[in-house]
Each structure stands twice: as structure tokens, then as C-alpha cells.
Amino acid sequence: MNMVLFSAVLPPTQVAESLQAHLEPLQAEVPEPRWIPPAQWHITLGFYGDREDPDARVKWLRSALAGWHAPMLRLEGAGTFSRVLYLGVYSDGLTELAAAAGAGEQRPYLPHLTVARTEDDVPAELPKRLSGFVSEPWTATEVVLMSSERTERGPRYAVLERFPLESRQAG
């Protein structure tokens, strides 16, 4: 079995529904990209690869994320890299949280939510058409450890463990 592990933040239902409603007209008009289903949307923090022991990674993350505050996030703007169409993620504290979860070990961290993949370059019209989307802000109350298995129908994701983040109390 080829299972890849990574940590991520998942968008809440209301943000996912708002984004899905925004994407539907574009998806109907431009079906060529492989649009990522909302159930697979996530913001990767750390990528660990396929040579990881899930139990060891759970233990490591439990320690690494202990005491971290829940950051506020919002989706805004769009961009592309390497045949990927994504929405930008803006936050105070997300980059630091990602570093604690192991991001940036192989490449600089770019917080994003992938919405489509293409066989060739992403058509320039797509990020332009999505650039005006801004989600409502939300608090990321947890980090999840996820697995990804390659299947004939694309990746199958599963949440292996959840790591609550501390809420910031006004005061």
C-alpha cells in the first residue's frame, strides 16, 4: 500500500459551501481541469511522505502542536503552480503553525487550498476568474493528520488523528 501522510487544516462547512457555490458556474463552463471535490479540500501544513510510521507521526505531532493557538484564516485570491489552481490562504499565525508541523523542510511554505489540477499549464483565465473570491474568516480549531492513498479514481483521503488547538480568549 502506498500511503502518504500529511498534516492539514480543513475548511469549515460554511466556507466550503460558499466556495462550492462560487465555483459551480466556472466548473460548468470550464470542465477541462480535474476539479477537486469539496470533501478533499484541505490546507496542507506538513508533508511527511510515504515512509512514515503513522503512530510515530501522531506522537510527534501531539508534542509539536501542544499549546498552539488556533489561527484565524480566510481564503482570498487565486494562483497557480505546477498544473495546480489554488486559492490563497491568509492568516496570522498559520505559517508558524505549519513550521511547527514540519512545513518548509523541503520547500518554502505557501499556504493554499487546491481547487483543480490540469494535465498542462493552468489556463490563465482561471486564476483571474477566481481572484475576486474572499471567504468569511474562520478559526482553525484543529490540525488533522491525514493519509492519502492513490486509487484508480484519484487520491482517497482519510483523517487519522485530530489535534485540537487552543482558542484565544478575549481579555
Which CATH class is shown?
A: Alpha Beta
Helix content: 10-25%
Report the uncertain regions: none
Percent range for β-strand residues: 35-45%
Describe the structure.
By secondary structure, the chain is an alpha+beta fold. It has one domain (3-164): Cyclic phosphodiesterase (Cyclic Phosphodiesterase, Chain: A, Alpha-Beta Complex), CATH 3.90.1140. It is built from 4 helices and 9 strands; from the N terminus they run βαββαββαβαβββ. The protein has a 5-stranded antiparallel β-sheet. Strands 3-1-8-9 form a 4-stranded antiparallel β-sheet. A hairpin with a 2-residue loop joins β8 and β9.
List keywords for this structure.
single chain; 171 residues; alpha+beta; Cyclic Phosphodiesterase, Chain: A; 5-stranded antiparallel sheet; 4 helices; 9 strands; 24% helix
Topology, element by element:
Blueprint: E1 3-9, H1 13-29, E2 34-35, E3 43-49, H2 54-64, E4 72-81, E5 84-91, H3 94-100, E6 112-117, H4 125-130, E7 138-139, E8 142-151, E9 154-164
Antiparallel strand pairs: 1-3, 1-8, 2-6, 4-5, 4-7, 5-6, 8-9
Short description:
With 171 residues, the chain is of the alpha+beta class.
